[in-house]
Design brief:
heterotrimer; A mainly alpha (about 280); B mainly alpha (about 300); C alpha+beta (about 525); B: 13 helices; about 80% helix; C: about 525 residues; alpha+beta; eleven-stranded mixed β-sheet; four-stranded antiparallel β-sheet; about 25% strand; globular
Chain lengths: ~280, ~300, ~525
């Protein structure tokens, strides 16, 4: 996982946002009703049509069991979008909340938290997640838990930093001077101003979750067969890269397109928020 | 201000971090299902053999006692003996670490070589065709999983075009750089994308800043303006990025080393996790922690040198 | 048992060379690089378990006798021959004259006694059961040892041709650093010394192993001079299948093991390569957990033999061979690989019959189908393929299958604890006798028949009888009975046998991988 700092000035932001949103919307649609767009049952074997190259009958070819790769790639959209959303939803909410409280109150919690951040940042994310999956056992639910257990720290760090900045600004002092309670200050005054970067990072993070989920799938620790997930599809085709390129290329493209969608949408949202300021 | 005190404070800060990592890793490792003896012996071993090996390894003792022993050894600088490879962990890490360090350094150099000139190109051509194409390319680098990128490089550049060797280390320095080219490219590609994106933004910001206008107004040639002011300031954000991404670079090394069959610590760590080789997992984690902490400190120092405001 | 004497004939090796080298005169010298999928772990003949050790050990440590290429009999090794007493209780072995370890020191009867006593020590390693019949070993002359037995043991010649009876130099072993024998073994195994065709000169764990020709090796080559032909044998460890093949195609290595069968046809067409599919002792099957209740206390449908038979009938073995092995392999006719001595040959077990499978399930009271979880090794393409095909075929008879990919340590722990329903499994024989595989698969006192919990008192009694039965006919009958009973009870789903798949570059000649898996480089050379 890599963390990007991108503060490009708002230019042509709407184009970025629109393209990103369209990609994500199409993917979401496919994920909701894969059965309507996929031409075949993604799990159906055909022992007479194994490893068939792309043709009119099978636009993306078939795999070693004769399963239709187009259908599998489309059905995998559902699994990978689930990974993107479910493994980041809890971290974004809980992590931001914890980060806000720590940023607002400081004290001993802040000291402990900073050491925790050091630990998580020090340790390779992938290895940590592999370790947790090894403890919990493989599977999608445990994958969400494993990513979530590590990921909340990044949101907390971000939220903490934002709150610290906002607290110093005049309006926060003013709110405190008016005698408002901490809850009202945090949620009515500070949160709306701090939420921009969190949402932007969330978009990036969903793309990262897909990369992580497919990496674990590739290692056999993510989605379990016969469920189609882009990473496991690539793992299935690994031995056939020289002889049946279509098994790996289309799921690979799908991952890239999804990543594009999330990044463009994220950049677009960031530009929009900055323009609002 | 004093760099010495700054370093000392940072070192003191990292002591509790190390302590926390030590305890966490020790416990996490023992939470893993399956015991070392079963992992080592496989399917055919009888219960008696498994018990005998676990007794020999001390893994049948109470956790608290195991932890005390582990601490005692650690304080003497001894990480113990690999249970699977039958050799001292320190020796093992000493053998493997250089490969990963070389690979990471190579990847970083490659990332910089790719990112810095292209970031300037993008910033100077901002909004035009070249900028869009390059941004797209780097976006691709960020969207592609390391394992897929590695497989693609291996298959296309290695196997089909036969431009590069397809794995292993090679012998001698030049041959080694040749062998490590594809792995370093795989590992450095996403880092290059991150650097290029942020550097481009930083350059744009600096270009619009007042002091650059002032320098231009003074009549400094454009190249000097870019070189002296822009590069220096843009470097600050790049160095920060390194600090953030270094731990992740090592994480990426796990997959890169697996795909390219490189005997580095990334692969060693994964093998150790799967083989329940407790001493190796613990030793490697500690070494990672120390290494990354030192690099954080070095990054901070470098930053301070570039921008004295940082620690004032 | 009749008196038997094996002639000294190293000409046997000549036959091996002719088999591999197609008549051309062997070329001496040079270095061969062989790509292995995984490195060895512990190069000690006694204290090892894994094939990564077993398959290369005999290149370093020679044994008194050697398995023949087909794995069905034994030929002379360090011993030029043996004599068995008429009562079958004493075996006298004579060492070849003038044989030496790789450091030039002589191989003496004392070394043999030391090595065999170590190998049969019940506290050392897990192979000592192979030598359980030995009562004592006497050194009667510097080149003669007498093995006294508690009871006649028909498997002794095979045991003396097995890696765990490799001969070590007593002096060098005892001089190795370490306070206890176990510590000495650990240091000795870092720098092993034996009387095999090669000796270890360099070992970088999980990277490469370099072996040098042992100038004192006893066997002679086709040219009348001492083997081996190669000066240097280098193992490079390349775990990734695709990378291993790429390096072979690029000429960076001369040979590679474990070629995925998916790639065999493609490599067969490569004019620079020889793709070899060698007769093996490898069977692939699914182990069932057959105890009356599952680990979480529910009644276990797999405890009913009819359910297990139904699961067997529901699997189309030909489809497995087609999809998983790309057409390479044969359906199993017994739990034993067909290369095992005394394996029954015959029609494949449980020919595909989904109607009968459904009927058997209904008869057992499961016409609504059952739920079944299949455990497999995470990331293993072969196991994923097997489990996926089984899942699909069992689905056709109403068995709802979930797959669970686990890493090796977790899978082993669950399996040993009986916490599984079905597991993808592979077996290879280590000795040229049916007793090893039978003790693991069918004889319950050993490891509860692969931790399945299966127990058949008749099989157990048959097996115990077979361990002392010296009449070949009667022994064969006992093993036939065991195999038939085991097949009917079906504690496993019988799938298929696979060949070993090795690819070599064209100039490589005389390489052997015997059906037990051992890689033999003694007569290997690089021609033109």
């Amino acid at each position: 996982m890599t963390v990007a700092i991108d503060s490009a000035p708002p230019r042509r932001s709407h184009a970025t946002l629109i393209i990103g949103t369209v990609i994500l919307a199409v993917m979401l649609l496919v994920a909701l009703v894969p059965g309507l767009v996929a031409p075949y049952d993604p799990l159906r074997f055909d022992y007479h049509g194994t490893l068939a190259p792309p043709s009119l009958a099978h636009l993306f070819g078939t795999d070693m069991y004769g399963r239709d790769m187009l259908s599998r790639t489309l059905w995998a959209t559902r699994v990978d979008l689930q990974i993107a959303i479910f493994s980041t939803l809890a971290p974004v909410i809980i992590g931001s909340l914890i980060g806000m409280l720590i940023g607002y109150y400081g004290g001993i919690a802040d000291v402990v938290f900073n050491r925790l951040v050091d630990v998580v940042v020090t340790f390779p994310f992938l290895v940590l997640v592999i370790g947790i999956v090894a403890v919990l056992g493989p599977g999608l639910i445990n994958l969400y838990i494993a990513i979530g257990l590590v990921d909340w720290v990044f949101f907390a760090r971000l939220a903490r930093a934002e709150i610290l900045v906002q607290c110093r600004l005049d309006y926060a002092h003013a709110a405190r001077g008016l005698g408002y309670g901490p809850a009202r200050i945090l949620f009515r005054h500070l949160l709306p101003n701090a939420i921009g970067p969190i949402i932007t990072y969330w978009m990036t993070d969903m793309a990262l979750a897909i990369l992580l989920g497919s990496s674990l799938g590739y290692l056999g620790l993510g989605a379990q067969p016969p469920l189609a997930e882009w990473g496991t599809l690539i793992a299935d085709g690994k031995n056939f890269m020289a002889t049946a390129w279509w098994i790996t290329v289309f799921p690979g493209l799908a991952i890239v397109i999804a990543g594009f969608g999330f990044s463009l949408a994220g950049d677009g949202v960031a530009d929009l928020l900055r323009a609002r300021e | 201000m004093g760099y010495g005190r700054f370093v000392l404070r940072r070192l003191l800060q990292s002591v509790p971090t190390f302590a926390l990592i030590t305890v966490l890793v020790f416990l996490l490792v023992r939470l893993l299902p399956g015991d070392p003896a079963s992992a080592m012996l496989g399917d055919r071993a009888t219960d008696a053999t498994v018990a005998r090996i676990n007794a020999a390894l001390g893994t049948d003792q109470p956790i608290a006692l195991q932890f005390l022993r582990f601490l005692g050894r650690l304080l003497q600088g001894d990480f113990g003996q690999s249970q699977v490879l039958h050799m001292p962990v320190t020796e093992l890490i000493g053998e493997r670490m250089p490969v990963t360090l070389l690979l990471s350094a190579y990847a970083m150099v490659m990332a910089i070589v790719i990112a810095v000139p292209l970031a300037f190109l993008m910033a100077l051509h901002r909004g035009r065709m070249l900028d869009t194409v390059l941004r797209g390319m780097f976006q691709l680098g960020l969207s592609m999983p390391t394992f897929y990128l590695g497989l693609l490089f291996l298959t296309v550049l290695g196997a089909h075009l036969r431009l590069f060797p397809v794995g292993g280390l090679g012998r001698g320095p030049v041959d080694m750089l040749y062998h490590l080219f594809l792995p370093a490219l795989t590992l450095g590609f996403s880092l290059a994308a991150v650097i290029a994106r942020s550097l481009r933004a930083a350059i744009l910001e600096v270009l619009e800043a007042d002091y650059v206008d002032f320098a231009r107004a003074k009549g400094l040639p454009e190249r000097l303006v870019l070189g002296r002011h822009v590069l220096r300031n843009a470097l600050i954000s790049t160095v920060t990025l390194f600090g953030i991404n270094l731990g992740q670079l090592i994480g990426g090394a796990v997959i890169t080393e697996t795909i390219f069959s490189l005997p580095g610590v990334g692969r060693l760590l994964i093998d150790a996790v799967f083989g329940r080789d407790y001493p190796v997992i613990e030793g490697l984690t500690m070494v990672f922690a120390v290494l990354v902490s030192f690099i954080f400190i070095a990054t901070d120092l470098f930053q301070a040198w570039l921008d004295p405001r940082v620690h004032q | 048992m009749a008196r038997r004497h094996l002639e000294v004939f190293s000409a046997l090796l000549l036959a091996l060379i002719v088999a591999g080298g197609a008549g051309a005169a062997p070329v001496r010298g040079g270095q061969m690089i062989y790509a292995r999928a995984a490195d060895s772990l512990f190069l000690d003949p006694v204290l090892n378990d894994a094939n990564v050790d077993i398959w290369v050990l005999t290149n370093l440590y020679d044994t008194l006798l050697e398995p023949s290429a087909d794995g069905r009999s034994v030929t002379p090794g360090l011993a030029s021959g043996y004599v068995l007493s008429p009562d079958g209780l004493t075996m006298v072995l004579t060492l070849r004259p003038g044989i030496k370890f790789a450091d030039g020191s002589p191989v003496l009867a004392g070394d043999v006694k030391f090595s065999l006593d170590r190998a049969r020590d019940p506290k050392a390693g897990q192979w000592n059961f192979l030598l359980a019949a030995i009562d004592a070993i006497d050194v009667s002359a510097p080149d003669t040892v007498a093995i006294r037995l508690k009871h006649p043991d028909p498997t002794l010649p095979a045991a003396l041709a097995t890696f765990n009876t490799g001969i070590l130099p007593e002096q060098a072993f005892m001089a190795a650093p370490g306070a206890t024998l176990e510590e000495k073994a650990t240091s000795f195994a870092q720098h092993p010394l034996g009387a095999g065709p090669f000796r270890l000169t360099e070992w970088h764990r999980n990277l490469a192993m370099e072996l040098e020709r042992n100038p004192y090796y006893w066997a002679k080559g086709e040219d009348g001079k001492a083997l081996p032909y190669l000066d240097v044998l280098r193992f490079e460890i390349i775990p990734d299948d695709a990378t291993r093949i790429l390096k072979l195609q690029g000429g960076e290595v001369d040979g590679a093991e474990f070629i995925p069968l998916a790639r065999a046809a493609e490599l067969q067409r490569d004019p620079d390569l020889q793709m070899q599919l060698l007769p093996a002792s490898e069977v692939t099957y699914l182990t069932f957990m057959t105890r009356p209740v599952t680990k979480d206390g529910k009644p276990n449908p797999l405890a009913d033999p009819r359910v297990r038979q139904a699961l067997n009938y529901a699997l189309d073995k030909d489809a497995f061979i087609h999809v998983v092995n790309f057409g390479n392999g044969t359906p199993m006719a017994s739990f034993m690989p067909s290369t095992t001595p005394l394996a029954v040959a015959g029609a494949p077990l449980y020919a595909y019959d989904p109607a009968r499978a459904k009927a058997l399930l209904a008869e057992a009271g499961f016409d609504q189908g059952i739920d079944l979880s299949v455990m497999l090794l995470a990331g293993s393409a072969k196991e994923i393929a097997i489990a996926s095909v089984a899942q699909q075929m069992w689905g056709e008879i109403g068995v709802r299958v979930t797959l669970e990919q686990l890493d090796n340590a977790t899978a082993t722990a669950r399996y040993r604890g009986g916490d599984f329903a079905a597991r993808v499994s592979t077996w290879t024989n280590d000795i040229a006798d049916p007793s090893e595989i039978t003790s693991y698969f069918a004889y319950s006192p050993n490891i509860e028949c692969q931790h399945s919990g299966f127990k058949d008192p008749v099989i157990d009694a048959d097996f115990e009888a077979s361990q002392q039965e010296t009449d070949p006919e009667k022994r064969a009958a006992l093993f036939r009975d065991i195999q038939v009973r085991f097949a009917a009870a079906a504690p496993i789903a019988f799938l298929f046998e696979s060949p070993y798949s090795v690819a070599l570059r064209k100039p490589v000649h005389g390489f052997q991988q015997i059906s037990l898996g051992n890689n033999i480089f003694a007569a290997t050379y690089l021609g033109n």
